[in-house]
Amino acid sequence: VDLKQLCCPTLREFGCEQNLLSRPDGSSSFVQGDTSVLAGVYGPAEVKVSKEIYDRATLEVVMQPKVGLPGVRERAREQCVRETCEASLLSTLHPRSSLTLVLQVVHDDGSLLSCFLNSACMALMDAGLPMSCLFAGVTCAIDTDGQVITDPNAAQEKESRALMTFAIDSTERRVMMSSTRGSFTVHELQQCIAVSQKASDKIFQFYRDSVRRRYSKTL
């Protein structure tokens, strides 16, 4: 076990901008290293009768790849993001209404799902939607030597024997969602969760700093 990685996980440089699109009710761009995505939130708005849920809002997540049409991989990622958002949103405050989250890939250089999660959280914040907690996405790769790499780039992902993405909540650092592929032991899974929980502290601090910067300009 790499104790240095466990105590102080290394993440690529972050960048974020909120409220950059005029049409959505909330929007954000999020950058992790060379991976970059856009998120737009629409709603609460009127919902189609066929999709109406009488006691809470209906959340739809749409993921657009950089080129071409969305496929099976996008559908799987949509589900991961939707489950995370549904767990944090207080959707019972907006019954019989619709929320739509649109995610657009700008550039994919690894850890795309965690970048989507972080962008989604910032867009939901920008839209002013009520949430029980914030969430952060962290991707971990396990290389052929068994070392854990946090926030891997595309080349590191390709070389890895296992890849895991976790959504961590801001209040108790619980795992809200996990997406895994490859082969790993139970111990390695626990190690990656511990590293992700530690890494999420940096992401939540980044959220705080960027929101503080934004509102210090407007006040």
Automatic annotation (TrEMBL):
GO terms for cellular component: cytoplasmic exosome (RNase complex); nuclear exosome (RNase complex); nucleolus. One of its GO terms (molecular function) is RNA binding. Residues 11-130, 134-198 form the Exoribonuclease phosphorolytic domain. The keyword Secreted does not apply. It is found in: Cytoplasm; Nucleus, Nucleolus. CDD domains: RNase_PH_RRP46. GO terms for biological process: nuclear mRNA surveillance; poly(A)-dependent snoRNA 3'-end processing; rRNA catabolic process; rRNA processing; U4 snRNA 3'-end processing. It comes from the Eukaryota. The keyword rRNA processing applies. Keywords: Cytoplasm, DNA-binding, Exosome, Nucleus, Phosphoprotein, rRNA processing. Belongs to the RNase PH family. Homodimer. Component of the RNA exosome core complex (Exo-9), composed of EXOSC1, EXOSC2, EXOSC3, EXOSC4, EXOSC5, EXOSC6, EXOSC7, EXOSC8 and EXOSC9; within the complex interacts with EXOSC3, EXOSC8, and EXOSC9. The catalytically inactive RNA exosome core complex (Exo-9) associates with the catalytic subunit EXOSC10/RRP6. Exo-9 may associate with DIS3 to form the nucleolar exosome complex, or DIS3L to form the cytoplasmic exosome complex. PANTHER family: EXOSOME COMPLEX COMPONENT, EXOSOME COMPLEX COMPONENT RRP46. This is Exosome complex component RRP46. The gene is exosc5.
